[in-house]
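Z., the sequence and structure:
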Amino acid sequence: MEALGTYLRTRWPEGLALDDAVQLCMHLYSTRDGIPVPLQPLASRDGLAKTFAALASCGWIRQPTPPADISGVDFWTIVVSSVTKQWPWRYDGEEARTIAARFRASA
């Protein structure tokens, strides 16, 4: 797993529900907020799609009900693309900031 995925798993070991993971993915793509500067280059469209697909594959991102195939890179590429299109996922900046705050290093 890439360094960004390892960082997220270390900061929040219990993982995220799909809706929260979607918001976090879009937020990281839009702002890079909540991740250390050395990892920010990994927050590209392709980097995030690969990272979040790997996180879904290992179970860190919890399956929705009913189950869906969330472990594919294509799924997460669509999520990242939704930032500007607002479809099929809607980016909620306030909710995403709250989720991203869980991953900030403690002072």
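Helices lie at 3-11, 18-31, 45-57, 73-85, 93-101. The longest strand covers residues 16-17.

Let me know what you think.
H.
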